[in-house]
Write a structure and sequence with these properties.
- The chain has one domain: Metallo-beta-lactamase, Chain A (4-Layer Sandwich), CATH 3.60.15.
- 29% of the residues lie in helices and 21% in strands.
- The chain has eight helices and twelve strands.
- Strand 6 (96-100), helix 3 (101-110) and strand 7 (134-136) form a beta-alpha-beta unit.
- Helix 5 crosses helix 7.
- 50% of the residues are buried.
């Protein structure tokens, strides 16, 4: 099987206004290491939601910001620790980098990108590890000052359980019914739960995201959407659990189960090889592992490469 269904001639990222003074920076096509970020513009300063995976992509994001506002970026909020959302932190000199306390720990532990043979070659550029240096345990509220209008409230909340990772946070703008979901949600791409939890992701979708009744959701990858995106992702997560149960009952490994699985309505989602990594996590949970418990992540990712015909996974970051 192959994940080479991407277009090498990807268009550049672009800011799209999704609220009053609030923008989503959408980077097509949303596959490996090609994430979305956000921009919130205040009267005397701006805030961003996440940075990008490479120096070039983060500088392009900064260029897009400069076309919208001349106010400095004073705050950068990380939704979780993965490098596509944090590698560019250091380029926002002078900004306060905010994140969950475990996001800080995991950014430090991950260090600079080092994935030989896993992804197609990436031009990372000059990357310096810059973890959040203002951290929280449950959440924090960010206020954007506005001229002639009420200040914009942004609730930054840890979701309380491992899901995409062990340290996922959302940014909720209640006055605009707008949600930055980070990688808890993908639109048109396959969710990735190897470092988190399938069961936990279902819990977060049902108990944290859905009750917000967001009118607009900016996922970590893919196009902004409405609340129907939560149901789409939930369908896939339950599918993974069902496939894992059947595979385990048949005595198959996660790789064997993935290779035999008809992805059905999810076959056209980007990065289909993630089914194997997700099955590794689902198998562990069937064996009683708690959400976010350590598993053999290098082994799971190696099986994803095998699923991909032994070729490095497609990456156009």
């Amino acid at each position: 099987m192959s994940s080479s269904q991407h277009d090498h001639g990807l268009p550049p990222g672009a800011l799209r206004e999704v609220g009053d003074g609030v923008f989503a920076y959408i980077q097509p096509d949303g596959s490996w290491w090609i994430n979305n970020t956000g921009l919130l513009v205040g009267r005397t300063g701006a805030a961003v939601v996440d940075s990008c995976s490479t120096e070039k992509r983060t500088r392009a994001f900064q260029g897009a910001i400069a076309e919208v506002t001349g106010t400095p970026v004073r705050t950068l909020v990380n939704t979780h620790h993965h490098g596509d959302h944090t590698h560019g932190n250091h380029l926002f000199a002078g900004a306060t980098v905010v994140g969950h306390e475990r996001t800080r720990a995991e950014v430090i532990a991950a260090g600079k990108p080092n994935w030989p043979g896993v992804w197609a070659p990436v031009e990372w550029g000059e990357i310096e590890i810059a973890p959040p240096f203002l951290t929280y345990t449950e959440g924090v509220t960010l206020w954007m000052d506005r001229l002639g209008a009420d200040d914009l409230r942004c609730d930054v909340r840890h979701v309380g359980v491992a899901a995409h990772t062990t340290n996922d946070s959302i940014i909720w703008l209640p006055g605009q019914e707008l949600l930055f979901a980070g990688d808890l949600l993908f639109n048109g791409g396959t969710p990735f739960l190897v470092m988190g939890s399938v069961a936990g992701a279902i819990q977060v979708c049902e108990e944290v995201l859905a009750p917000l009744a967001a009118a607009t959701i900016v996922p970590g990858h893919g196009e902004p959407a409405g609340p129907e995106l939560i149901d789409d992702v939930l369908g896939y997560l339950r599918f993974v659990q069902d496939v894992a149960r059947r595979g385990k009952e048949a005595g198959l490994t996660p790789l064997q189960t993935g290779l035999e699985t008809d992805l059905g309505p999810y076959e056209d989602w980007l990065d289909a090889e993630r089914i194997v990594g997700n099955l590794h996590r689902a198998y562990a949970e069937l064996d009683g592992a708690e959400p976010g418990a350590p598993i053999d992540i290098p082994g799971a990712i190696g099986d994803m490469v095998t699923y991909n015909g032994g070729q490095p996974l497609s990456c156009y970051a």
